[in-house]
Task: structure prediction
Amino acid sequence: VVYERYCHYCHGREGRGDGRVSMAISPRPPDFVEDTERMSRSDEELLRSITYGIARKAGGEQLVMPRWKEILSEKERRDVLAYVRRLVAEGREKAKAGADGSGQGGAKTE
Result:
């Protein structure tokens, strides 16, 4: 539920990068479900991004995603990653169900 408190504003409730403030962010947050390259990274790599944030160089260093090290405990950061992994699995299952015509839509997100 840490995700619901801090992350969904940018990343969206289903991890699609469509949160309420995502339109005002450049670059836009990733769609975790569709971004297979990013989500194929190890847990340790993704935890590093959550812990220390993501910076991009564009005429000087700019923090694109804040570092959560000072705000979230290590357990909370790991819980967020586990939740994101679950959102990805559910989103891909929904997409697969829609593509095969079953219309089942996968598991519900609470």
Q: What stands out?
A: The helical segments are 2-11, 36-39, 43-52, 74-99. Confidence is low (pLDDT under 50) at residues 105-110. Residues 41 and 47 are 10 Å apart (CA to CA). The chain has four helices and two strands.
